[in-house]
Write a structure and sequence with these properties.
The complex is a heterodimer of chains A (296) and B (265).
Chain A (H helix, E strand, L loop, with lengths): L1 H36 L19 H8 L1 H33 L5 H7 L2 H4 L2 H12 L5 H8 L13 H29 L3 H9 L4 H29 L3 H6 L11 H10 L4 H26 L6
Helix pairs in contact in A: 1-13, 2-13, 3-4, 3-8, 3-10, 6-8, 8-10, 10-13, 12-13
Chain B lengths: L1 H23 L3 H4 L14 H7 L2 H33 L5 H11 L4 H14 L7 H25 L2 H9 L4 H12 L1 H17 L2 H6 L8 H9 L6 H35 L1
The chains are: A mainly alpha (296), B mainly alpha (265).
Chain lengths: 296, 265
């Protein structure tokens, strides 16, 4: 009994400092954000500890906003196309670098730099390259004759969304590639040899062998892609700030604006909680898929 | 042949970074020149030299303080926590791990306002402590989860042997487990540094005094200004990317293994 109690204290001593840190800085804010989403908290009431209970009013108001509808749709559009493109490109790159050639490993690693560059810098860079007059992208398109006049990438509503998607794909594709590469390298070589002896061509091998065997990894990559893309904030905030006219507004930028531009903290909290709720559901599915053996 | 194709592909992917560095050395007129030059005709270094004594230098120091302090907090807290969760039957262990997993999935806006209010109460707004503490919350869950797998996979026999040789559990942890788990520790320290180094939103929200801005906030705030001085701004950006590139070159092997093990395992 004595020893068990001692062991319990020792085991807690290792974990508790980190846990307290996270509970104070993440657990409490998480709880607090739920609390203020049911109150009326703005600049006027910020210093008043007893803010009136508002029930579901903030949620009703936020959901009723036109900008919420646009942001909701945009978030899914941004997420879908980002994942689709970064997955396809990442997969193509993974297949390419999986071929055995001398520089494969080195070059594959090098692409990860785009994943590690701070997002603000990535946003600035793409803003520079998409710039209508000084941008290199317009210059390339013009000189190859794809377009006959400079394109307003960031100021045209439809193109602005594609601009942020392209920047996001630049960030995400190497990460997708890395995970898919790890998956590919774990596939057994001998069954591919057997299949080619039996006359299956590369395409058939890919569709009937690689894809099914890689299914678990593919699912993880897509789920993680969803979780990280759905909450993207900095990239859009810096590149377009949600504009032009809400064209790139997503739930995270909308929540930020409600809180820190309009100082309507309660509505901002409601919007970010809706975002979090969707992510939480997806995260649970994801956790069930990958970590079930380890955690539960 | 494949080597050449590979180099072309990677060149295309990394072109934006090349373009940033090259453009930061061009005079303003050359940036607007069409066709663009792949290499500066005339080297412009004032973007670096004139700013280093001012905002650029100050921001660089601020970024360094934020990133190193945040990294230190993460390493000090995450190493024992991950070891405890790997080796001991801690009560509520599953929930703790779940908590760390979920915090990695939180959208930043969920905690931003409450953190702002919390730091206001603690009188930490407008100090580097605010982004340091806030960014450590990104590094801790990442590191705990990564390091736990390292400690789980570390041979228990070594620890037992050390204890027979007179170590207690804690000294065995310090002398045996930490040294053999160094790849994991490097990964978590590197990523904690990078998370804090790349942070914009926390610094921007918690600090209004421009003298205390890290590089990211400096870059962001110069972007909005009318008539961007692209070359000066891009030299700011290049300086921001420099430590990232340096760490990547030095620690490439660890970074790649860390990313893949953290995600798929």
């Amino acid at each position: 009994m004595e020893i068990n109690k001692r062991n319990l204290l020792i085991s807690l001593a290792y974990v508790v400092p980190a846990l307290i840190f996270m509970l104070v800085l993440i657990g409490y804010p998480l709880f607090y954000n739920i609390k203020i989403s049911f109150q009326h908290l703005d600049l006027m009431t910020l210093n008043n500890p007893d803010v009136a209970f508002a029930g579901l009013e903030n949620y009703r108001k936020v959901i009723g906003l036109d900008s919420f509808h646009i942001a909701f749709k945009n978030t899914f559009f941004f997420t879908f196309w980002s994942i689709f493109l970064q997955f396809t490109i990442g997969f193509a790159l993974a297949l390419f670098f999986n071929m055995k050639f001398r520089l494969a490993g080195f070059l594959r690693g090098l692409t990860l730099v785009s994943y590690l560059v701070p997002i603000v810098i990535t946003s600035l860079l793409f803003k520079f390259m998409f710039n209508q007059s000084v941008g290199i992208i317009n210059y390339i398109l013009l000189s190859f004759g794809f377009v006959d006049q400079p394109i307003e990438w960031l100021t045209h509503p439809e193109l602005a969304m594609w601009s942020v998607i392209i920047a996001n794909v630049w960030v995400g594709a190497p990460f997708n590639m890395m995970l898919l590469s790890t998956g590919l390298s774990s596939l057994p070589d001998d069954i591919y040899e057997a299949a080619s002896i039996d006359g299956a061509n590369k395409f058939k091998q890919f569709v009937y062998m690689t894809l099914p065997m890689l299914r678990p990894v593919i699912m993880i990559v897509i789920m993680m892609g969803f979780i990280f893309t759905f909450k993207v904030f900095d990239l859009i905030f810096v590149m377009t700030a949600g504009g032009p006219v809400n064209a790139t507004e997503v739930l995270s930028t909308l929540a930020y604006k409600l809180s820190f531009d309009q100082f309507n903290f309660s509505q901002g909290a409601a919007a970010s909680n809706i975002l979090f709720f969707i992510l939480f559901i997806v995260s649970l599915i994801y956790l069930r898929m990958v970590r079930s053996d380890e955690v539960m | 042949m494949l080597n050449i194709v590979g180099i072309v592909i990677v060149g295309a992917i990394l072109f934006p970074i090349y373009w940033m560095v090259v453009s930061s050395f061009k005079v303003q007129g050359e940036i607007f020149q069409m066709p663009p030059t792949l290499f500066p005709n005339e080297w412009y270094v004032e973007g670096y030299t004139s700013q280093l004594g001012g905002a650029l230098g100050r921001s660089f120091i601020n970024s360094l303080i934020v990133a190193l302090s945040s990294m230190a907090i993460v390493v000090i807290l995450a190493i024992p926590a991950s070891y405890g969760l790997a080796r001991y039957p801690v009560p509520g262990k599953k929930w703790m791990i779940l908590f760390f997993l979920v915090t990695q999935m939180l959208p930043v806006t969920v905690v931003l306002t409450p953190m702002f209010i919390l730091f206001k109460k603690l009188a930490l707004l407008n100090s580097l402590a605010a982004p340091i503490l806030a960014t450590a919350t990104l590094g801790i869950p990442f590191s705990v989860l990564i390091l736990r797998t390292y400690f789980l996979n570390a041979p228990k026999e070594l620890e037992d042997a050390a204890m027979i040789d007179g170590c207690n559990r804690f000294t065995a942890f310090l002398r045996i487990m930490i040294p053999i788990s160094y790849p994991g520790i490097i990964v978590s320290a590197t990523f904690s540094f990078l998370f804090a180094w790349g942070d914009l939103i926390y610094s921007m929200t918690f600090i209004s005094n421009s003298d205390m801005w890290p590089l990211t906030a400096g870059v962001y705030n110069s972007m909005g200004k009318y008539g961007i001085q692209w070359n000066n701004l891009l030299s700011f950006a290049t300086i921001t990317v420099l430590p990232v590139l340096a760490m990547f070159i030095l620690l490439q092997r660890y970074i790649i293994s860390g990313l893949t093990s953290g995600a798929v395992k």
